[in-house]
Amino acid sequence: MLLKSLLQPEIQAFIQSHLKGAINELALKKNPFPSLDYKLILNQIEAKNKAENKLPTWFKSENILYPSKVSIEQTSSEVTAAYKSNFVSGETLVDLTGGFGVDSFYFSKKIATVYHCEHQAELSEIVQHNFSQLGVNNITCVNGDGLDWLQKNNKTVDWIYIDPSRRHEVKGKVFLLADCEPNVPELVTAYWKFTNQILIKVAPILDITSAIRELEFVKEVRVVAYLNEVKELLFFLEKDWTGPITIHADSIAKDQQVETFSAIFGENVAMDCELPLTYLYEPNAAVLKSGVQNGLAKLHQLKKLHPHTHLFTSSELIDFPGRRFQITRIEEYSKAILKSMSGKKFNVATRNFPETVEEIRKKGKIKDGGDDYVFFVTLLNQKKAVLFTQKI
Prior knowledge:
Blueprint: H1 9-17, H2 23-27, H3 38-54, H4 56-60, H5 69-74, H6 78-84, E1 90-95, H7 102-107, E2 111-118, H8 121-133, E3 139-143, H9 146-153, E4 159-162, E5 165-166, E6 180-181, H10 184-191, E7 197-202, H11 208-214, E8 218-226, E9 229-238, E10 246-252, E11 258-264, E12 279-283, H12 285-290, H13 293-299, E13 303-306, E14 309-314, E15 322-332, H14 335-341, E16 345-351, H15 357-364, E17 367-378, E18 384-391
Parallel strand pairs: 1-2, 1-4, 2-3, 4-7, 8-10, 16-17
Antiparallel strand pairs: 5-6, 7-9, 8-9, 10-11, 12-14, 12-15, 13-14, 15-18, 17-18
Keywords: Methyltransferase, Transferase
Pfam families: PG_1098_Fer, Thump_like
Domain PG-1098 ferredoxin-like: 279-321
């Protein structure tokens, strides 16, 4: 493999010494290693930089090879890979979409034998080399199509793991699983010949309801957020499952502590609505994406501002998985209230409101930042209101 020439000590030292520099400036300098394509070296620097926070185990290890920086951007982070590995167990797992191997690495800590399947020969070699450097000896790297490999070997496994990627020709933000490669809805019947359990990871932008309609035997869905940003959706399929689907909102904090709220998918929770009281609550990102905010608020005996305004209120302060605010002032939305905010700093948010944050800022000449949080909302009486708050 050509990339193995990058493992020469002097090249590794060069890569390490230029991690903090400007890559554009470095690209203009003369290649200090004429026998090797300079672009390969520059890519190692860029990709390793991308890995520093996302993949610290790889970043800190010696003689690790990196694919393109795009591959690093698209791979799971160590935080989410470690988290999802908690939900698998058994003797064998096949990762049909191996990529850079981060998920396989963490699955190998919970599964006796992992098969990492990857179409790209060079990437498969890179991953195999890196696993050796990381001291992993229970992962077998397979260059080729994972389903073909299962069929040729007639291999039954405890788990099949799939991380389908969106096809480039698909336009727009919202997409379906059928718009991805591999096309899981089309292939799932074939997968069931080799396992009873399938785990599918997809991007947060995917519509959960649409994905459940496309799939079969969905048992659980997990919405995984890290530092209040949804990172991935996990669909757990169990062969012949006909029971209810449980959906979990999993929010991982910086210290790796996890806050979880679970509900039955599609369960309709009726909420009592109320005009704003003393305190305001905004559910965390995982809760909002999973759609379980009403059940969570009901559990905490909160009131909702409006059936379609996903903010909640109470007279007494409670613990809540999300942000909490004390309401200091409530105003009816008007030109006068915008004028009073002109030139001042506010953190602005909208919920169930006809104008965007950008439009409000522009119209009111409102600066960003400060300690005050202002919510532009629709209340239960259908009136548009401005809630001035302080974060607790």
